[in-house]
Amino acid sequence: HCFYHGRVRGHAESWVALSTCLGMRGLIVLNSNDTYYLEPIRGQEVLHHTFYRTEDLPIKTGTCGHSHQTGHISLFSGHLKPLHQRVSQKLHFRLWIMEIANYVDKFYRDLNIRVPLIGLEVWTEHDQCIINEEPNSTLWSFLQWRQKLKSRKKHDNAQLLTGVIFKGTTIGMAPLEGMCSHENSGGINVDHSELPIGAAATMAHEIGHNIGMSHDHEGCCVEATAEQGGCVMAAATGHPFPKVFSRCSKKDLDNYFQKGGGMCLFNMPNMKDLVGGKRCGNGFVEEGEECDCGEPEECTNDCCHPSNCTLKVDAQCAHGVCCEDCKLKQAGTMCRGAAGACDLPEYCTGGSPYCPSNVYLLDRSSCQHGRAYCYNGMCLTHEQQCLQLWGYGAQPAHDACFQDVNAAGNAFGNCGKDSNGNYMKCEKSDAKCGKIQCHSAAKKPKGTNAVSIDTTIRTDGIEVKCRGTYVYSTQDGQGDLPDPGLVMTGTKCGEGKVCKDRQCQNASFTELQTCIARCHGHGVCNSNGNCHCKRGWAPPFCEKPGLGGSVDSGPVQYDSEFTFSFQYFLKRNQFSSPKNENSVINYSPSCRSTPLRPSFIFRTQIKIFLIKSDGSERPPLTATPPKLSRSIKVLKTSLKLST
Prior knowledge:
Shape: globular
Organism: Sinocyclocheilus grahami
Radius of gyration: 25 Å
Mean pLDDT: 77
Strand order of the largest sheet: 12-6-10-11-9-39
GO molecular function, one term: metal ion binding
Structural class: alpha+beta
Low-confidence stretches: 66-89, 474-481, 560-604, 613-643
Domain EGF-like: 511-543
CATH class of the domain at 3-269 and 604-642: Alpha Beta
Helix content: 10-25%
CATH topology of the domain at 3-269 and 604-642: Collagenase (Catalytic Domain)
Strand content: 15-25%
Membrane topology: Single-pass membrane protein
Number of helices: 7
């Protein structure tokens, strides 16, 4: 293991992301104004290094496109066949990718999100999906390929890194709120810089879209000036690269979790596959370790010995929401409340410091009084999307608006784009899966670059105003951005039908109906296909008296519902890194109820999977490496919250 995070002595605001593999290489941030890059000089038998400001880094300025459809990490290493005459060692490529992941990890640590690398796959013979200059077709082809990958390698999110240059200035693209989704959890990134920090900044941006972060609008980024690099979620980036997330991004992330997004992030990962091997001090509790609070200099955990990753005398635990003051919490203590209509609560087991894996209502379960279906733990409706785009008071427009406007097949009304980037007309049956049409009294939709597309139609002798959304770019060649005004995958578009691939398709209820039949009318079905019983009935089948819950939720103890203590890392809209990870907040409801998920984000981690296709390999880790002619590496990421 040769990848580290740290600080510079005597500089309180500093942080460092450094690799000691084959010399020292990495980023040194002294403060908001002084950032340096250190790397070995090529061709030196005795290692000498260059040290310079990041303003001199060769990073291509570019923009991001994202789509509005609705991430503990294991690393998988695929076969790498050296193809470039200047690169003959598999090790160099792996170290290059690991350095990218190390930067992304550092960017996200300020949000208490970790990004360990778990997988690497190399495409040496031919591409496994369409990869060309059209970012839309590349993104959707890659996401389709990822669905096949998921069946052979468990992960939550995948990122493609390619040397192919996209049209215009786009250097990355990812579906908004796609994290954990079977169809949309991933993104594509251009390896546009001669140094890994450039690709890392882009990848952090695209992962941000996956976890609900939109582009920063004017006034969002007060954390850093343009001269200091700005913020990660800026629509266009260059050098110096961004290092911080804006307050708007933090609010977006909070809102995403509050409405039930990112359900897979709350599950504990399998750390056996962590790239680089296990090491005491990396902050991940791996096999053979009782705890891991980081390096001795950074450890603030009173329950763990940082030098050998063992528990202190009399300590039962050191991490996890079911651990308090080094002791395991009582079985039945609620550790994760339900977030929204499609989520289910979980309870401490009394034998583990971690909350049980997060489960939620099985897809296609009814929500919103039958007006919608659950999808990946979220209740998606046209009304919700109108509120997101237009704000308070917005409502879905008349069905005729969807049918008339989306039949045009242009930028203002469509069912997405085809593989060539051309707008597609919506068939009448698919109209409610195209551009979202709303009623709103607002002057314009939310977002700096969003404008309203107002259309008046006549239906049943009455004039009806339809309000759509178009997001434009000030950059040339940005007409190929995925549209944030498209209806989200999983939204109900008819009785027994949901939006998928821009079509209103029949939804399968077989799994749900089979499960419901086993619950004897006293429970609902969770995402594992098991019964979650109502209070008064016992799992697994809700046919005998009991306290409720499921075989997945942990034992229910209703006495504990009057006082819930939640170990937390982040407060709502206050995404700062706390000094004491054992701080608690007490929640005492005035009457017995099932509380919503608390507004705190527990430690998160992102699993990354990498893929490389035929083309130029990455050079050895020395200064000024050559640009790629064509190489593809896929970072497969899975964000996971370790609660």
